[in-house]
Amino acid sequence: MDAKGFFHSTTALITALGTMLAALVALGVFLLGEGVFKPTDEREAVGDGTKPGGKMQFEDRFGRQGTGGIELDGEKGIARKATWEGDIVFYSDTVTTYDGLIVEWTEAPTPSPQQCAELLRTHGAAKGQDIEAGKRFCVRSSGGRTAYLAIISDATEFYVAVWPKA
Q: What's the burial of 41, exposed, middle or buried (CB within 10 Å: 0-12/13-18/19+)?
């Protein structure tokens, strides 16, 4: 094969590969636009459940250190408090809210932000809930944020996720 024939073959091969690549990219963009490849919620095991659906604004996993509260409306994330003030308050063997709403989530799987918001709207109260490993709660903060609380192992380890304000 002479140099001219090789050049034309290589050019044709590169052109064909470039055309195929452009077609694949266009197909991918089209399928993404049609919602075929909708991203799934990144879910990771938390106790016997999983992280809730939806995009979280903040999330944290922490251990209980006696009586105290958790503030969900902070600009920099979830803040733990040594006092009984906070959107989630732990006292003895109960969890409640200082100035918000809380209700147990008993369905499977874990809730979306819309499901928690609806459950809080119809059944939310400020009354204390028993702390038991495996229980999960929807919480409305005093600032109007919706959150999810999971009680993990031996009721001293917790996971909390806060969704962006709707």
A: middle
Three-state SS at 100: coil
* Token reading at 107: 């369905």
Judge contact between 127 and 91, C-beta under 8 A: no
Give the start-to-end residue ranges of the domains of the chain.
Answer: 1-38, 45-162
The predicted model scores a pTM of 0.66
Sequence length of the chain is 166
In tens, the pLDDT along 35-94 reads 444 333 333 444 445 678 888 888 888 876 666 788 888 877 787 776 666 788 877 787
User: Distance from CA of residue 149 to its chain's centroid?
Assistant: 11
Q: What DSSP character marks residue 164?
A: P
Using CA atoms of 82, 85, 86, 92 in order, give the dihedral in degrees to the nearest 10: 70
